[in-house]
Amino acid sequence: MKIKKVLRFLMLAAIAVTGMSVVSCMDDEYMPVPVKLSDVNGNYRARLITSQGVKSNEKIIDFNAKDSLITFKDFPAGEIVKTIITDPAKADTVLAHLGKVEYTIKFKSKLNIDQNVVELALEPQVMAFQIPVGGVTKSVAVKMTAKQKGFYVGYDNSLRFVWEAEKITVGGTDVAPYQVIKYEVPISIKK
After folding, report:
1. HEC profile for the chain?
2. pTM attached to this predicted model
3. Which of the chain's ends, N or C, has fewer CB atoms near its CB within 10 Å?
4. Domain range list for the chain
5. Other CB atoms closer than 10 Å to residue 154's CB: what's the count?
């Protein structure tokens, strides 16, 4: 009889404790830390998805955002070079000797308080570098465009944006036929 009373008491105590813990959690609300325009500035590690037609490639890259500029110190130019030089062996040789290609994207930022994000109006610049084509060094100009806004998300301190290589010109001549190369950073984490 005593054991039944003790068990009943323990069950009631467990139910009471569980009920109080559920009630105490009901008051907990997520209060986001408001973002500021300056929050965009920093060093990032990102997953870059590059796609051209049905071909897609992913790579982890680093970049910096500061003073309305996103700077890639070592931009992955593989798809661009492979579009210009269609022989895979020759393209790999050119890429091995190309070195680091630096690329910068300008942006204008605007605070969106309702969504707790900083919206980025991207203004991609023309990428320019030199490559050897047929034994001659030629200038490459890649016209970049951005058709949608980028975002700095306050919830996870990440930067997300998309842009495209709209046209490639080698030595003043447009590459034809040409299929647009799309660059997408779906998530990047501030280091």
Report:
1. CHHHHHHHHHHHHHHHHHHHHHHHHHCCCCCCCCCCHHHHCEEEEEEEEEEECCEEEEEEEEEEEECCEEEECCCCCHHHHHHHCCCHHHHHHHHHHHCCCCEEEEEEEEEECCCCEEEEEEEECCEEEEEEECCEEEEEEEEEECCCCEEEECCCCEEEEEEEEEEEEECCEECCCCCCEEEEEEEEEEC
2. 0.81
3. N
4. 37-190
5. 18
